[in-house]
Amino acid sequence: MNKAAPGSLLGIEHLEASEILRLLALARRMNPRKPRPLLRGKRVLLLFYEASTRTRSSFEIAAKSMGAMTTLVLSSGSSIEKGESLLDTGYTLQAVGADVMVIRHPNAGAPLLMATHLDIPVINAGDGMHEHPTQALLDAYTILRHRKTLKSLQMAIVGDIYHSRVARSAIHLLSKFGARITLCGPSEFLPEVATSLAPGLHITRTVEEAVRGADAIMVLRVQKERLAGTKLRLQDYISRYQMTMARMKLAKRDAILMHPGPIIRGLELTWEVADCPQSVIVEEVHNGVPVRMAVLAKALGKAR
Ligand code: CP
């Protein structure tokens, strides 16, 4: 197979810890409120085959904050609807002058396929059940605003781990820095193979056990249609796995509550938990902009 175009960010799994630290340090120097023309004249192509609010808007604001132009192509309303293939779409968008492509796709490996056939860097904005690397970076950035280090961080991840690219990227990242990760969810959402993602992962079946003493809790979205494919009824899921204030109290007093969004209040977490002082859900979204500025600057060779 061809090599991915230089500057591409396809996942966290194969990044060195030092590369992650460099990106986070670069993100700390980025301020979207003080635009820098680092990417003036560059064209950032946002190609989204799936719905997105946070990732799409923050990549666009990140790019524009650095003087780049952005073009958004959605699967609906583009020639993708007429049956144009992924690669032909990629060749077309490269031909119109894209300097970097940000892609979200329902199939794992779509960004890799693009990156190994195009000459421009490709950034994975979430591919199927595979990875969501910029989400993991912004989550690490957020944790490090509340904790000095990721080493020995006690992290609980609760919900549909199996289908979650967010969980997969977070696990890859946090385990590179020695975090202790506990996964919790119904067996259908937490197959035993999850432990092969990283050494030292723990699995528990009760939320109480998962969150006890945790420094950070990441709650994942649960899709009702996926729940329908399990033996659990919605009400059972809520009573066993929903994050409540009573469960939050089992974590460290200053533990942070994370969620990649979109949140479904009343399902995976209560309204009270979503808005509690420990919730950093909005902060995660906010931090997505400097992190994506850093990722774009690096992809386009402008990271110093
Ligand atoms: N966290 C996340 O990827 O959100 P969006 O689907 O809104 O981009």
Compact summary:
With 304 residues, the protein is an alpha/beta fold.
Search tags:
Rossmann fold; 12 helices; 304 residues; 9 strands; binds phosphoric acid mono(formamide)ester; five-stranded parallel sheet; alpha/beta; 2 domains
Strand segment count: 9
Total domains, how many? 2
The CATH topology name of the largest domain reads Rossmann fold
Quick check: average pLDDT?
A: 94
CATH class of the largest domain: Alpha Beta
Tell me the helix content.
25-40%
Strand content: 5-15%
How far the N terminus sits from the C terminus, by CA atoms, comes to: 30 Å
Give the class from helix and strand content and strand pairing: alpha/beta
Instruction: Give the strand line-up of the largest sheet.
Output: 7-6-5-8-9
Descriptive report:
This protein has about 300 residues and is of the alpha/beta class. The protein has two domains: about 15-130 and about 285-300, 3-Layer(aba) Sandwich (Rossmann fold); about 145-280, Aspartate/ornithine carbamoyltransferase (Rossmann fold), CATH 3.40.50. The chain has twelve helices and nine strands. A five-stranded parallel sheet has the order 7-6-5-8-9. Strands 2-1-3-4 form a four-stranded parallel sheet, sandwiched between helices. The chain is globular. Bound molecules: phosphoric acid mono(formamide)ester. Phosphoric acid mono(formamide)ester binds near residues 52 and 55.
